[in-house]
Amino acid sequence: MGSVTLTVPARPEYVHIARSVAAGVAAKAAMTLDDIEDIRLAVDEACTHLLAHSAADVLRVELLQSGESFEIVAHVDSMIDDGDERGDGSISWRILEALADSVLLERSGESASIRLSKRIS
Questions:
Q1: pTM metric for this prediction
Q2: What is the pLDDT of residue 121?
């Protein structure tokens, strides 16, 4: 397939667009209905987590199918909360770990990304 990048204003009312696009891309990747729903929920949780801890103007979501793996990277350019590096302890982070095969919080300077990966069944 390839990759899709979506850029929207970093505001909660735009997260549903990222969620819908991710579900559409997952469907094109021939994922099961359960996996598509997991992707939809994971994008929602990742974006919401980043927005709750940032003062960003832009939210970027990248979706990539590579072989048997579907990867999501949600990114903001301004992280204001220095909390735990992995995000442990929050219900949001635990939900992400349940929905995806791997979850990473990546920081570079003031920007932050949550990288999720899910195997395609």
A1: 0.89
A2: 78
